[in-house]
Structure formats: structure tokens, C-alpha cells
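Researcher: We're reviewing a set of sequences before deciding which ones to prioritize for further study. For each one, I'd like a predicted 3D structure that I can look through quickly. This is Trk system potassium uptake protein TrkA. If possible, include the structure in C-alpha cell form so it fits the rest of the review sheet.
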Amino acid sequence: MNIVILGAGQVGSSLAELLAQESNDVTVVDLDRLQLQRLQDRLDIRTVVGHGSHPDILAQAGLEDADMLIAATQNDETNILACHLAHSLYKTGKKIARVRSRSYLDHPELFDRSENTSAIPIDVLISPESLVTDYILQLIDYPGSLQVIDFAEGKVRLVAMRAYADGTLVGKQINSLSDHLPSNIKTRIVAVYRRNQVVMPTGSTKIKAGDEVFFLAEAEHISIIVNELRRSKERPSRRIMIGGGGNIGFNLAQALEKAHQVKLIDRNMQQSREIAESLDNTIIIHGDVSDKDLLLEENIDEIDLYVAVTNNDEANIISGMLAKKLGVRRVIALVNNQSYVELIQRNSIDVALSADSITTSHLLHYTRKGDTVKVATLRKGAAEAMEVIAHGSENTSQIIGKKIGDIEWPSDITVGCIIRDDKVIIAHRELTIEAEDHAILFLSNSENAVEIANLFSPETKRSWFS
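Model: Here's the predicted structure for Trk system potassium uptake protein TrkA, in C-alpha cell form for your review sheet.
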């Protein structure tokens, strides 16, 4: 696939790296010549220096022959105009734009071409702030979770949990999990990470304290399963403090304030006043999130969850670590610098997440071959979970009509479940793949994604007489 990416920031760079590894023809456009040179030094890509919404620059980038444009600069107007130009000048097949401002997002009719053919020609609109907000809300729904990902339009969820010493299942074999659950609840543990090494699970695999456990189940059953894996003393987060009143902080407070006790701290007086006027039940505090005296004054030791979502990584890290030291049970911090994430995870901060990684993960399935419905990166991009549709027939497919145990899967692949006629079927060796099945897969090595896409794509079998 020929793909043009506008913007060489974290999102653009991450996408370029992932797409180049999958043998796509990638061109990155940015004004920062030095950043482009760094990318070109380590990746097999083309780069163009210039403004992403200028027609001559888009022409230099080869947009005329591109299958897809991903406009991921920091400027909404640049991204929107670039998609408009791509449509008007080249009829580019797929146009994806990163848009952050609520002024645009509050008017979806601007981009809905199904209702209005004169709407802005963007096929996929992504808002990093909205994606991060939804991500954090799911982490709050499941106390102790490290990652929560929806598949099959929310019918199935993949959840990562840390196994603690006082958890029910620590020291027990995976096949004993069913003994602790009601008979109607089915789940599959698709991977266990132990000291950053993957353990491909079998029924006899024992869960140890500190393990990171990934399991799949129907969405309505997740809470019951989480209760078996989390530490016995852990309780839902009712009292929540949010550090930062930007788009993410505001959206979180708005979503949480009806069912939770919410406090929000922001250092900008004008922004604090505007938030106070817009929210009904949230306590707004003007101040510095890393001010120890302020946190103590606001009874930080009584807070169940502190969420640091300012636009400054260092402020999020410092305030998160300080909040933990002062008695907060759980801390989630927004940290976009990946080198920071690796240093602080499990060191005072319970979950460090990156808006850029979440955004990149959301975009991946649009770039995959075959009918890949969704892709989610895990373990800082080392692993993936994906939803793929089996198209074709027994005559044109390598997998349709075969039992899961008889298919020659790439190494380190776990089939979690199959969705068939809106029913979730937990995978087992004797289960036969049928046409139009949605398969949820766990890949401990993301490099196998291309092989999986090819495996699920129909191809005519070679005739005996050819």
C-alpha cells in the first residue's frame, strides 16, 4: 500500500515505523528537516520537507498515486485542508485526519458525507483526546486493569490485569479459573507476561504474583472475572482527582461527575473558571498539580484514584508519584515520551499511557491487508490483538472448514474466540472456522500480523491439473 503521512511527530513517526515494517511504501511530510532525517536514517521511507496542506508539497509526496492519506500534524486546519485537497485534486481513496478541537468535534455534521455531499471529505476522523478519555474510563470501570480493549462492536473485551499475591488465582493453574466462576461465564487467558517475557498459556500454566495476565471474555462477564484476578482489598474508585483541565481532563470530569466524587486541579485561572461554569458536580481547584501543600489541603490521602492528564509529561509524572506517596491507592498518568513510560511503569505510577500510542493503535487496522476490523497494540507495540474476518469458502481459503488445531498458525499466536452470528464462542482446538467468522487473535510478536492478514484473505487454491 502507498501511504502518505503528514506530520513527523509521535503519531506520524510511530505509524511510519509500523507501516514501513509491513512493507508499505511510506512518505512522511513535515516542516522539521532534522526530524525527517532521523526517520529516514532508520526507516526505509521517503520524506518531503514542506507544509502538509500546500498542493505542491502534496504533489512532491506522490499523493496522486497514494492509496491513503493520514493527516496527523498538530494543526487541525492543516489536516482538514490536506484531506480536502487530496479529495479535490486526486480522489485519494482513504483520507484520515487527526482533529483535536472541540469546536470541530461538536459539529459532526461537518464531516458526515452520507447526509451532506458537500461536507468535508474525511473518511476517518480521529480525536486523540476522545480516544484517551474513553480508554481511561474503561480502566476506571475495572479496578486494577492495565488495559481494556473492545472487539466485535463491544461484545468482547480483552483485559490485562496484574496478578497480586493476595489474588484468588495466584499459585493456581489456569484451568482452575472455571472453578471460581459461574458455569455460564466463559473466558480464555490468551497470554501471560512474566518479567517482561511472554508465557504462552496452557491449562497447566500457573499464575504467579506479578504476572500480567491478558484474558478475553464477553463484555458483561468482565467484572466478575476481574474480581477473581485483582487483589482482595481493591475496591472501585469513587473519589477521583484529576490533574489538568484541558480537553481530556474536562471530558473525564464531565463523564464521571454524576456517579463519582470528582475534584479537578488546573493552574490556569481562566480555564478553571470556564470549567467551573460548564460542570455541575465537580469541585474545581485553581493551583499546581505538583504542589504538595495543596494536595494535602484537598485530602489527597482520601482519594481512590488520581489521574494526571496535563499537557506536560514531567508534571504528570511528578504529581502522580507525589500523589501515590501521599496515600492515593491508584495513579494513572498521561506520558507521551516512551522513554519515560519504560522508566516509571510500576514505579509509583500504576498505569502510564500515551495518547500517541492509543491513537496509533486506533489507526492500524485501516492500513492492514485483508479484512482486519480492529488492531490494538500491546506491551508498547511488541504484541498485538486483532479482529479479523474469515472471507471466502473452503475452496478459496486456507482456514475455512478447518479446525483451529489443524491450521498452521504462525508461531506465538493464540486464538481467543470466534464471533459467529453475534454469538461469542471461546476458541478450542476442535472448533471449526466458518466463512464470515470474526476471529479475535493475540500475537505476542507483532511482526506476524502480515502473515495473519494473508492467512485470512481468500486465495484460489492451486488446481491438481495446473
